[in-house]
């Protein structure tokens, strides 16, 4: 297959030679693993990638004397973009991360229309855009390029499935290796695919 | 002067030929102007640049039956990065925006150490990084490259001033033109400086 930079990838080979990373999680969530990974990347001056704060609609704030302002009423808002973005090797990086307990497929209900539109825009403007999908029952975490996601997203509105089969995630994605300090070492996949 | 891409700029000429943009604001804050500008850029498929949500430390959440979760206690956290980032012409874009009522200088207390460190990292990894500084009394909004900011930041710890003189902002910055739909048309400055 072809990638935005015109290089073909060795996806299927990778999927076949994947390693089990069953020692990787130890009860940490995908978000915690990615946050630790991003801290490691930042501290070692490898990349500048951050999770965006959770969007909150703030309705009521108290300003007590001589102490910090307190939010007394607020609501969670739906994100209009992905959760993570930043900069690596001069390139704009953008991704969403989701874990599922499902064994046979990744439900598309995990993603919102706005996020797909955002990923398409990022792709069109030359960014590196992807999803990180963890199947927690298998303890496997996949790098899934946005360009591979879009056809599944579109097909659900044309009579297609509302999910991506696990077998297709294995086929179109690359398993992300566990490293001691970079617990979800997705930059190693970016190095393979885009440089 | 030289910019990261090696092109020299026409800064001083621009500063001299600047136009007053006194019709631009009409009571809108800099943040509102930039949000409108970013929406325009996004809707016209020119760039993908968003403001990050305000970071909130969520302490207590109620989950009422049959209605949305309510945040009952939360606190504002200090941002560890800048407020805005995104993608334009294949490049990672990152900036902070501040307005001041000061007439003679821009106080460095408007910026935090973490933000400076972030801007330095972005600069080192090949991103386009800058500040947008508005002097509200003059109704002037400047594009101020991060590389121009760092020496002022450092000098305050070596007996230097705790602010950047207005005259230096005029000299080292470029005034950002007001456009009807792109109220703070900073991409026009990026086009001049970096491409």
TrEMBL record, chains A, B:
Q: Which reaction does it catalyse?
A: Endonucleolytic cleavage at a junction such as a reciprocal single-stranded crossover between two homologous DNA duplexes (Holliday junction)
Keyword flag RNA-binding = no
Record text on cofactor binding: Binds 1 Mg(2+) ion per subunit.
**What InterPro entries does the record point to?**
Resolv_RecU (IPR004612), Restrct_endonuc-II-like (IPR011335), tRNA_endonuc-like_dom_sf (IPR011856)
* Superkingdom as given in the UniProt entry: Bacteria
Keyword set for this entry?
Cytoplasm, DNA damage, DNA recombination, DNA repair, Endonuclease, Hydrolase, Magnesium, Metal-binding, Nuclease
Cofactor(s) this protein cannot do without: Mg(2+)
So where does Mg(2+) get bound? 81, 83, 96, 115
Q: Which GO terms describe its biological process?
A: chromosome segregation; DNA recombination; DNA repair
Q: Does the keyword Cytoplasm apply?
A: yes
- Site Transition state stabilizer: give positions: 98
Its Gene Ontology molecular function terms?
crossover junction DNA endonuclease activity; magnesium ion binding; nucleic acid binding
- Identify the main location: cytoplasm
Q: Which Gene3D superfamilies match?
A: 3.40.1350.10
For the region Disordered, give the residue spans: 1-23
Q: What is its EC number?
A: 3.1.21.10
GO CC terms in record = cytoplasm
Signal peptide range equals none
UniProt subcellular location? Cytoplasm
User: SUPFAM superfamilies in the record, alphabetically?
Assistant: Restriction endonuclease-like
The record's similarity note reads:
Belongs to the RecU family.
Its function, per the record, reads: Endonuclease that resolves Holliday junction intermediates in genetic recombination. Cleaves mobile four-strand junctions by introducing symmetrical nicks in paired strands. Promotes annealing of linear ssDNA with homologous dsDNA. Required for DNA repair, homologous recombination and chromosome segregation.
Q: What is this protein called?
A: Holliday junction resolvase RecU
